[in-house]
Every structure is written in C-alpha cells, then in structure tokens.
Write a structure and sequence with these properties.
31% helix; alpha+beta; three-stranded antiparallel β-sheet; single chain
C-alpha cells in the first residue's frame, strides 16, 4: 500500500481560489491560457458541481473540475484534472480520484466518466489497471483543434471510460480471454516532439485497429504495459 500524499484536497469557494485554479490548469497545459476559463470554473462551482484544489503547505498545486450528467443518469463527467510538475509522482492523481469518488458517491452518483488520449500509456495504465475503470467508447477527434502545447496540431482522439463507484475495480482479463492486443508507444509525447510523422502514424494505426476490433464485437478489457490494450469479446 502506497502512502497517501501529504496534501489537502478541498472544494473551492471564493472567486480568488477559482482564478488560482484556472492559472494552475493553464500552467499544466502551457500555450493555452484558457485551458479552463475562470468564469466557467466559477459557474460550475457556484451551481454545485465538483471544483476542487490540491494544496501543498497552503499552495495550490493542482485542480479538478467535473459536472453532473443528464437528470436520472446518476453520472458525473470529470472534464479536467491537472497537477503541476513539481507535485507529480507523489500519488496526488490517485488521491484526487479517490476524493472525487467519495464526493460523488455522497451525492448519489453511481458512475464517473472521463476521457483520455488512447496513445498515452501512463494514463491507460492508471485508468484501467490502477482505478479499474472500463472503456465505453472510442471518440474520433473529440475536441477538434486545441491550442495548448500538448495537443496542438494533432487529432484529439479519446477513449471514454466509465468508473462504477460501487463496483470492484474491473480486473485485467486472463490471457485465455484475450482475443487481440493493440500496442501503443511508451512515450507518445517524446515522439510528438522528436518525430511528429511517427507519432501521427501511431495515431492512424491505433485508431483504425481499435475501431476495427470494436466493429468485430470486441471491447477493451484491460491494459498491459508491455502488450498494450487487451481486447476481449463484448458482453
């Protein structure tokens, strides 16, 4: 069991805190100072949605925002979560997700959804192996063109995942149940900086292969750090 990070996670209540959170998120996605505009964060916070900050010795080092889904669905969609580089690698992301889970569960939310880039291996590992969330859908160029340094100039393909809050984590499938594997690069960010053409080729290949498997009636059942996405028959 890893130790919990020595940080405070709490809901933001003032305009000043909301503006600070917007600045923190803009620093995590450099190049786009409107990564999550303060006025939108304030509107979400004021209307009772999930808007929190992560504080390390009184300094905000991370922030997260989510909002409730359609009436009757008992869902919440987590749109953005960011932690500054100096606070990464300490388990803050996992602590944030646990806080989000507890907050949502206390408000009768049954599922949390969010998206992530299918080519980012560390996110696939965290979402599928650590949290045990389940992939619901492949979304092609979900957000269109984005201006931040991370996403500029590349299609914003995303996997939509669903986290069932009252259920145990979805386990990695047994080898006997795996029908196909889809490898992804270990460091897509490095490829984008150094060899953009290779990164673009990975995008095209992974998109086509995953969508083809979905059309065949398969789904992503888990993720393996060496083998990539593990495809199993759909339920």
């Amino acid at each position: 069991m890893s130790e919990e990070p020595d940080v405070e996670i709490r809901e933001l209540t003032t305009v000043a805190e909301v503006h600070e959170a917007a600045a923190v998120l803009a620093s995590v996605w450099p190049g786009d100072r409107h990564a999550m505009p303060a006025n939108i964060l304030r509107a979400l916070q004021y209307s009772g949605n999930y808007v929190v900050g992560v504080f390390d010795d009184g300094r905000m080092v991370g922030a997260s925002a989510a909002w409730f889904g359609a009436p009757g669905d008992r869902t919440m969609h987590s749109h953005i979560t960011g932690v500054i580089a100096a606070a990464q690698g300490r388990g803050v992301g996992r602590a944030l997700k646990q806080h989000q889970r507890d907050w949502a569960f206390a408000r009768d939310v049954g599922h949390i959804t969010w998206t992530f880039d299918p080519l980012v291996a560390r996110n696939a590992h965290f979402n599928l192996r650590v949290l045990g969330a389940r992939v619901s859908r492949y979304l092609v160029d979900q957000y269109g063109s984005m201006n931040d340094d991370v996403n500029r100039g590349v299609p914003t393909d995303r996997l939509l995942v669903t986290w069932a809050l009252a259920a145990p984590p979805v386990p990695t499938p047994d080898d006997d149940d795996v029908v196909a594997e889809v490898l992804i690069p270990g460091d897509i960010e490095g490829l984008r900086r150094e060899t953009p053409a290779a990164a673009a080729a990975w995008r095209t290949a992974v998109r086509g292969t995953l969508l083809g498997h979905f059309d065949r009636g398969l789904r992503i059942g888990g993720f393996d750090d060496q083998r990539g996405y593990l495809l199993v028959p759909a339920d």
